[in-house]
Amino acid sequence: MRVLGWLKTPPARHSPSTLTETHMKVRFLKELGAHTWILDAVPFEKQRAYAQRIQARRPAKVRELKESTRTIELIFFLRVTLLELTDALLYQTGRRVSDLVRQAYDHTTVRQARSAVEYRQQLGAIKALVQDNKRTAQGRLDNIGKVLEDLVDKPPASHAASVREMLTNDHHRIRNLLGPLRELGFVGREAEPSLRQFELISALHDKGASELPPDSDVPVSAAWSDLIKGGDRVQALRHWKHRQSRGCVRGFAAARSGSTTACRSGNAISY
């Protein structure tokens, strides 16, 4: 009954630990085999009604039920809970991805502001050297050259490009988010783009790939094209994983329509 109480506990505040606990509950229910139970003969609203009876009862009251009644209600409770937790895992993963994007955006803003201040300071130093009549012309040129050594030759990237680069460098957290989703075992229409891309991510993960193969058929937007189609295939894989972590979560959430009932639709993605 402790496990029953644990499963009935609603998610806590949005945090990485909440995501971890939701994943643990989904894994536990799948280990019980709840994802394999074929209950389509019972209308979903009736399944939900049975599940809510368990949800409303205290564990002690559940023990007092007749065994057949308790078994039926528990089966539907576990099945419906798995569906709801799957939706919750997708939602929480999406929020976590948004957190990472927001953090990267904020860090990029701070970094670019700091760079702008440093750039102005360098311009001020150069201006002071130009106006320094106490130095010889050659001395001023030499000192200006030293100041210019600190300037980056590469033109500054746009804010959006800098955010993408920062997210790619945070690839460990992105990879940790994709891991729990792989365990859900999504299935759906073959033409579903998010599903096809997720299957490719899973295949590369299973092979232990550290690079994105040059011949990989991955659709890329113009903003990501240079990053994913470039010569550095290790970075290309990291860029692509981040890109797909956002796209897959959005695609799965849209396919399920944000509701556990979507899993019953032939057009939806389910596990």
Task: Write a brief caption for the model.
With 271 residues, this protein is mostly helical. It is built from eleven helices and no strands.
Describe this structure as you would to a colleague:
- The model is unreliable at 257-271 (pLDDT under 50).
- Helix 7 (159-169) packs across helix 11.
- The protein is mainly alpha-helical.
- 69% of the residues lie in helices and 0% in strands.
- It is elongated, with a radius of gyration of 27 Å.
- The relative contact order is 0.10.
- The chain has a domain at 2-95.
Number of strands: 0
Average the pLDDT over all residues and give the rounded result: 79
Number of helices: 11
Task: Please give the largest β-sheet.
Answer: none
Radius of gyration: 27 Å
Distance between the termini: 27 Å
By secondary-structure content and strand pairing, the structural class works out as mainly alpha
Q: What is the overall silhouette?
A: elongated
Q: Strand share of the residues? A: under 5%
- Provide the helix percentage: 55-70%
**Parts with pLDDT < 50 across at least 5 consecutive residues:** 257-271
Query: What is the H-and-E element order?
Result: HHHHHHHHHHH
List keywords for this structure.
disordered C terminus, elongated, mainly alpha, single chain, 69% helix, 271 residues
Question: How are the secondary structure elements laid out?
Answer:
Elements: H1 2-8, H2 16-31, H3 44-56, H4 59-63, H5 67-130, H6 137-149, H7 159-169, H8 171-182, H9 193-207, H10 222-228, H11 233-256
Helix pairs in contact: 2-5, 3-5, 5-6, 5-7, 5-11, 7-11, 8-11, 9-11
